[in-house]
Design brief:
This protein is α+β, with helices and mostly antiparallel strands. It is built from 14 helices and 4 strands.
Length: 364
């Protein structure tokens, strides 16, 4: 006797998503990168601000730990001690002298600079060296550790994108929900507002808004300012789609029954109309999240977004635009690899969820 199993909508979506190999791999990388950002302080051997700069290793090349050399094998990974000097023979560039007789050993769960996580102060870090500092991605022109800055930049860029996305969802649900449910003059006014926002060219708008940012603003103020602008500029598209959906759904029999029962307008929109559009909202959110990160990165890259000392991916890429960096300090571009991986992971996961959101579609 055969057994028939009835799956819910969520189970059907999950089953189909599991069959998408590229989406599953992208989910693993996405969770890995998000974890790097969340636990960036613990994973960073150096403080990512100017306070943690290594003045003796400015524009230093990446330091790769090793286990053996001509002096023998070591169970614990180590680095060589180095001395850096300038001379007229090298056009006053740094010349690094390696002392292979003096090793600096790598230790795990070492004590270091203090940081706060979930309101608790810690001073333990995943790894460090017994003498000086370790820079596995090298350092920049101020001596700041690029590895530590990259992990912090992932967290900041994700936070800006998330905050911008929350503002976008709130405005889309508010404007699209009211326009689609009430229709009439309410729909006309709100639709005119969203259409007007969509016609504004983004780059001139951002340039104008950047001109009004006071120099006295803190990094946190600029953070919230940029995230808010990104959310307000990007909400009209989802609001229009939500409005169109609600215009067709508001005359359904279950909505009329709820109105006859005396259900409030807010409850009808929140409890009955929005759940019918939830799957699309989730898919749209995941697909548009990388574009929020791209927008923040682009603004910071051209000098209109976050600025030093904030560690965002756009800020780090902006620092890598100099010709001297391209010719001599190529490790400045290492954060670009993380940026590409982060955006591609979001894109593949979003595509996977979009395909899985319609589990009854015949797969080719």
């Amino acid at each position: 006797m055969s057994r028939t199993e009835i799956l819910s909508q969520k189970q059907l979506v999950f089953q189909r998503f599991k069959k998408n190999k590229s989406a599953k791999i992208a989910t693993f990388f996405l969770l890995f990168l998000i974890s790097l950002g969340i636990f960036s302080d613990f994973l960073s051997p150096c403080k990512p601000t100017i306070a943690g700069a290594d003045k003796d290793y400015i524009n230093g090349a990446p330091q790769i730990p090793r286990f053996w050399d001509e002096n023998g094998f070591s169970i614990r990974p180590f680095l060589y001690s180095t001395e850096r000097t300038r001379s007229i023979e090298t056009n006053f560039r740094w010349v690094e002298t390696v002392n292979k007789e003096e090793r600096r050993y790598v230790y795990f769960f070492v004590k270091g600079w203090e940081y706060t996580f979930l309101g608790i102060t810690f001073d333990r870090h995943l790894f460090g060296v017994d003498k000086g500092q370790i820079h596995i991605f090298g350092t920049d022109e101020t001596g700041k550790d690029i590895f530590s800055r990259t992990l912090k930049a992932i967290f900041i860029s994700l936070a800006v994108g998330l905050l911008g996305l929350v503002i976008k969802l709130f405005m889309s649900l508010l404007v699209g929900g009211l326009a689609g449910y009430f229709g009439g003059w309410v729909d006309s006014i709100l639709s005119a507002i969203t259409d007007a926002i969509r016609t504004i060219p983004p780059i001139p708008l951002f340039m104008a808004l950047a001109a009004f940012i006071p120099d006295t603003w803190s990094a946190e103020m600029r953070f919230f300012y940029i995230a808010t602008i990104l959310g307000l500029v990007d909400f009209p598209t989802l609001a229009r789609r939500l409005r169109t959906h609600l215009l067709s759904e508001r005359n359904q029999e279950y909505i009329l029954a709820a109105q006859l029962c005396g259900t409030s307008t807010f409850k009808i929109i929140y409890k009955h109309l929005l759940p019918s559009f939830t799957s699309y909202i989730i898919v749209d959110t995941l697909i548009n999240f990388p574009y929020m990160i791209l927008a923040e990165t682009s603004l910071s890259f051209i000098g209109l977004g976050l600025q030093d000392p904030v560690n965002s991916i756009g800020v780090m890429l902006e620092n890598a635009t100099k010709t001297d960096v391209l010719l001599n300090y190529q490790w400045y571009y290492i954060p670009t690899l993380f940026f590409i991986a982060l955006v591609m992971a979001f894109v593949y996961v979003g595509d996977g969820i979009r395909d899985a959101a319609d589990p009854y579609r015949v797969q080719k």
